[in-house]
Amino acid sequence: MPELVKKCPECGGINLNWNKERGEIICRDCGLVIEEKMVDFTQEWREFDGDQSEGRRRAGAPMTYTQFDHGLGTEVGQKADLFKLGGKERNKFFRLRKWQYRISTAIERNLKLALAELKRVSSYLKLPKSVEEESARIYTLAVQRGLVRGRSMESVVAGALYAACRRHDVPRTLDELSDVSGIEKKEIGRTYRFVTRELGITILPSNPADYIARFASSLKLSAETQSNAIEILEQAQKAELTSGRGPTGIAAAALYVSALLHNEKRTQREVADVAGVTEVTIRNRYKELLDELKLDKEIKKRKKGKKRK
DNA sequence: AAGACGAAAGTGGTTGA
DNA sequence: TCAACAACTTTCGTCTT
Q1: Full DSSP string of chain A
Q2: Which pLDDT tens digits describe chain A residue by residue (309 residues)?
Q3: Nearest residue by alpha-carbon distance to C1' of C7
Q4: Where do the structural domains in chain A lie, given as residue ranges?
Q5: Topology agreement, domain A1-59 and domain A106-199
Q6: CB < 7 Å to strand C — which of 283-302 in chain A?
Q7: What is the pTM of this model?
Q8: Which CATH superfamily includes the segment(s) A106-199?
Q9: What's the topology of domain A1-59?
């Protein structure tokens, strides 16, 4: 990461994510894109010999998926072509253009609407541009494969966004997405699974550590508490406490414990709220953490220190 | 009075026959 | 396709601070 940027100017967060591929620096706490359009480090294609280079080098502006036609666009024929055609050919030409028109307007109209919705939700959640692009790409693919049929456009948009967030390690919870998009949580989950499965997009299970930064900053916890929480998470992962559990619950519990150890106590309710889980889940994870990580000694020490008969 | 804790019953989703 | 199952939630009563 370039030396210049250490802190997020928006929220002061220190969890910056440098995405080399897109040339962006993103604040993981608030999602602000700090530096954009740096150098594009990636090559679009590899060239193995002279023959291939001709077709593979790119020229012109890179494509963008947030324009409904990817910034390119095709129309059948220009008027000038007409003069070259005879009567029969001319009819064929008109038929083709009509078809092209019908198909493309249906898809394009849908895409225009959907991308507008996508941008709205994305900006509301302060998602980085890279995620927005990715979700637009996913949505476009979904439309082309006819996966939207029978589902509301909004729910597919939400599903695409959710998937894109996961892939870029800036996870938002289904609850957050649900709030902004107005689609039910389970509906988003359903379309998310459906779309990713149909498109063959593989998504790693999200890492609890990815949530820590955001939760910690909305709870106004210190940086030490935060990094300690991540250490706790690592230990928990070694003890195989994390598999099969919801990542948000684990992240929340680790933060809760860490806050206790640093005298920055938050109530279970407070932590539960920002993590979008219940107190009970935090308690369960918390108990498991104490059992497995022998942290209970430290907690007890703390309590004895207070009592001091 | 508020927070922490735990038990019991209910929900939505996954898995394996 | 259905039943068993694990994770999580909701609700509620009790204990602690």
Answers
A1: --TT--S-TTT----EEEETTTTEEEETTT--EEE-S------SS---SHHHHHHH---SSPP-TTSTTTT----S--HHHHTT--HHHHHHHHHHHHHHHHHHHHHHHHHHHHHHHHHHHHHHTT--HHHHHHHHHHHHHHHHTT-STTS-HHHHHHHHHHHHHHHTT----HHHHHHHH---HHHHHHHHHHHHHHHT---PPPPTHHHHHHHHHHTT--HHHHHHHHHHHHHHHHTT-STTS-HHHHHHHHHHHHHHHTT----HHHHHHHHTS-HHHHHHHHHHHHHHHTTHHHHHHHHHHHH--
A2: 444 455 665 566 666 666 555 555 666 665 555 554 444 434 444 444 444 444 444 444 445 555 554 444 455 555 555 555 566 766 776 777 677 666 667 777 888 888 999 999 988 888 888 889 888 888 888 888 888 877 888 888 998 998 888 888 887 888 888 888 888 888 888 888 888 888 877 777 778 888 888 888 888 888 888 888 888 888 888 877 776 688 888 889 888 988 888 888 889 888 888 888 899 888 888 888 887 766 555 555 555 554 443
A3: A245
A4: 1-59, 106-199, 208-308
A5: no
A6: 284-285
A7: 0.69
A8: Cyclin-like (1.10.472.10)
A9: N-terminal domain of TfIIb (2.20.25)
Nearest nucleotide to A193 (CA to C1') is B13
A185: which nucleotide lies closest, measuring CA to C1'?
B12
**Is A208-308 a CATH 1.10.472.10 domain?**
yes
List bases in chain B with any atom under 7 Å of a protein Cβ: 2-8, 12-14
A193 touches strand B (CB under 7 A): yes
Nucleotides of C under 7 A from a protein CB: 6-11, 17
